[in-house]
Every structure is written in C-alpha cells, then in structure tokens.
Design a protein that fits this description.
This protein is of the alpha/beta class and about 350 residues long. The chain is built from five helices and 14 strands.
Amino acid sequence: MFIDYSRIKVQSGKGGNGCISFRREKFVAKGGPDGGDGGKGGDVIAVGNENLNTLVAFRFNKLFKGKKGQHGQGSDKTGASAENVYLQMPLGTIIFDITEGKRERLGELVEHGQEIVLAKGGNGGRGNARFKTPTNKAPRYAKPGGDPEYKELELELKLMADVGLVGFPNAGKSTLLSKVSDAHPKIADYKFTTLAPSLGVVQVSDYESFVMADIPGIIEGAHDGKGLGDRFLRHIQRTKTLLFLIDMNSNDPFYDYQILKKELHLYDPYLDKKPHLIVLSKTDTIDPDDKKDLLEILKNEFENKFHENIYPVSSITGENLNKMKRLLFEMIKKYDKEVE
C-alpha cells in the first residue's frame, strides 16, 4: 500500500537520575560521596532507507517512545544510557514539527543512512560525587535526569524518480509503465484508476536503466487541490525529467498539453521548465488511413506554436517504446552531467 502522508508523535527517553551514595568500607569511618551519574535517555531518530518507498509503517502506529536512561549507582557507577529508537523512512521524506500548532521543517531524508534526530533524550543527572568541594565534602544531593522531548510530526513523502509521467486521467500512463518496466499498477478503462503513485524500473539495456513514476491523473485545477492534485503534483518536483502523455483520441491534444503545463506552473513555477518529452499515446486506436495525416497536423502545430517535438507510441503494439526509453535515458544522462 502506498502512503505518502502521515502524522506521528515521538517522545524521547528521560535521563536517569544521579545517585546519592557514600562509601561504606570497613575501617573507613567517613567515606566520601560515590554516587554515579544517570544514563542518557534514548533519542528518536529518523533514518533514510533506499529500500522503502511508502510511509505505510506510520499509518497505524502513531506514537514512538524512547526508553529511559538507568539511574546512577553507588561506587561511582554510571547508569546505562538507553538505546536509541530508529524510524526507517523512504528517501524523499520531509519532516515537519507541528507541535502546538506550529509548522517548522526539521529536515529531509535524501541519502541512504542519513539520520535526523527527531527527539533528543534527556541527559543523565549528575551523582553527588560530582558536587564534592573542599567546603562540602559530603553533599547530600544529586541532579534528576533531564526531561524527555515530545513532538508531533508531519511526514510528507516526495517520490525520488528519474522520470515523472504526467497526463490526464485515462491517458494510458499505467499501461505504459507496465509495458516498459517491472511495475504492475492497476489498469482499467475508466478515469482515476490510479489513486497513488507507482514506481517502476525501466531497463534500457543490460547496464542502463532509470526509475519512472506514474503520477495519478492531473485535471484542470489540480494545483488548488482539485482531484487531490496538490498531493500528486509534489511527487513530480523531485523527478529529473517529465514525460507528458497525451491521448491521441483527445478532441484537442494541443490544448491538453497547455492545461498540463499550466497546472505544473501554477503549482511550482519551476516544474514546467524541467526537461521533458511529449508523447502521444494510443496510436493503435487511430484508423491507419487517418493516422498519418493526423500526426502530421499535430507535429506541425506543436512545432510551430511551442517549438516542441512529439513522439507517437502505442503501449499495445510497442510502437516507438524502445525509442522513447532511449530518448528519456539520454535526457537523464544530460541532466546528471549538468548538475555534477
């Protein structure tokens, strides 16, 4: 199950108390203080894990608590510090502190093994041996352990993929992804079949591949949340390249492309400036006698008005799918080289 949003609560462990103790040895009438320090409470830490791609682990379990540090003991024995609690999260997770109505960004997990401390465990209290002075050789007090931290957090996942599939509902995105990758998204002949993003690894050759994300269909008004569009659009922000998939059976493919670009721009002014490829889908559904003329008209329209090329494909017959994969792979390589 794909979950890209969750709210959780975290609480670190309390620090162990310092100990009040005095040496009790034979033939030592007045032993000095020997109370040890308390151990540190456990932290709650988020860890980036490249093997995860969903926040489903945080859907039902909403409270994560660190353990208490052990109290100090006599004979200058320090209490054991508690073990930390590690929360494994997918790369692309952004963490916000929303305690008491605020919304402060704590960090973002972008690398495998990266750690973000969500709640710091309380420090161990100092034992009475720490307070011995020339004027007070037998202190009868120690410090209690530090208090734990409590936070309410918002987790927001933005998928990290090389290519983001963008198109209207039922444009054929899921079918395309299933044909070119190892993904198995739900496919049906009605709108909004895809209700959550899907990831698939696209194999270009034996040693060349990239990750493609199928984003649920975008409709006009998506940037304002219509059709849950604002939730879906954020997943496109991390992609290196966009693939605009336009249904060739549309009444106006050129207009569809304009709407998609507009929604991306209104959500994030940088989104529609990403490297992209425009692909016309479902070419197998067009009458062969009309297909050539229609493609010629659309190619001229896109070239004259947008200086854009279009690439017709069919997920059913496999027309131009290999060419499309190679074009996308070359665009990704160029992007990676430019950002080095």
